[in-house]
Automatic annotation (TrEMBL):
Its EC number is 6.3.2.6. InterPro entries: SAICAR_synt/ADE2_N (IPR028923), SAICAR_synt_PurC (IPR033934), SAICAR_synth (IPR001636), SAICAR_synthetase (IPR050089), SAICAR_synthetase_CS (IPR018236). Pfam families: SAICAR_synt. Keywords: ATP-binding, Ligase, Nucleotide-binding, Purine biosynthesis. Coiled coil: none annotated. SUPFAM superfamilies: SAICAR synthase-like. It catalyses: 5-amino-1-(5-phospho-D-ribosyl)imidazole-4-carboxylate + L-aspartate + ATP = (2S)-2-[5-amino-1-(5-phospho-beta-D-ribosyl)imidazole-4-carboxamido]succinate + ADP + phosphate + 2 H(+). Pathway: Purine metabolism; IMP biosynthesis via de novo pathway; 5-amino-1-(5-phospho-D-ribosyl)imidazole-4-carboxamide from 5-amino-1-(5-phospho-D-ribosyl)imidazole-4-carboxylate: step 1/2. Residues 7-231 form the SAICAR synthetase/ADE2 N-terminal domain. The keyword Cell cycle does not apply. It comes from Modicisalibacter zincidurans. PANTHER family: MULTIFUNCTIONAL PROTEIN ADE2 (PTHR43599), SI:DKEY-6E2.2 (PTHR43599:SF3). Belongs to the SAICAR synthetase family. This is Phosphoribosylaminoimidazole-succinocarboxamide synthase. The lineage of its organism: Bacteria, Pseudomonadati, Pseudomonadota, Gammaproteobacteria, Oceanospirillales.
Amino acid sequence: MEKRDALYAGKAKSVYRTDDPQRLILHFRDDTSAFDGERVESLARKGMVNNKFNAFIMGKLEAAGIPTHFDGLVSETECVVKKLEMIPVECVVRNLAAGGLVKRLGIEEGRELTPPTFELFLKNDAQHDPMINESLAETFGWASREQLARMKTLTFQVNDVLKQLFLDGGMLLVDYKLEFGMFNGEIVLGDEFSPDGCRLWDAKTREKMDKDRFRQGLGGVIEAYEEVGRRIGIEFD
């Protein structure tokens, strides 16, 4: 497959066209950002780690019957994916209270959420990804009722698979966000799944092992990412 011109550059990934109009190449860069891009740093090995982490997770989800856009790795920092018509709505599941939920509601960090919560956010950097609901998504044409229902179902299926995967590695899946798109008329999981887009804590100590280490200046960001990967069976060079 031939890599062609750049289509888009996000905060941590770049997207390239290929000679196949239905396939793209994702390049995971070493860039790390927080607070809507106000803080940006380059962390050595991050692109490689997140690329391999994402490939592993997407494989687990595919094996569980969850459709994803992932097609395969092409290098240490790149993978091939299906070209989706992205739906600009992020789906967030929270198993434990942390981050924005704690700030909004004033509840204790770490509180177990039973049942887990499900939230929607509009993917819009200029508006700081505001929280929305199904009614707003339908009214403004961001997603249809049927799409939202399918996205919710798939998001909770992901939770069932990954909560146990991480628990088997001695970790708690605190929360995560997912993005979806359309491919040949089907809702498909897109973007990535890595410690950049979820919260993971050690099950015994509750040590943070995700991007909060960068947000909160705790250090050891990539070391934590690699430890998460090793605990679930990912090998890094």
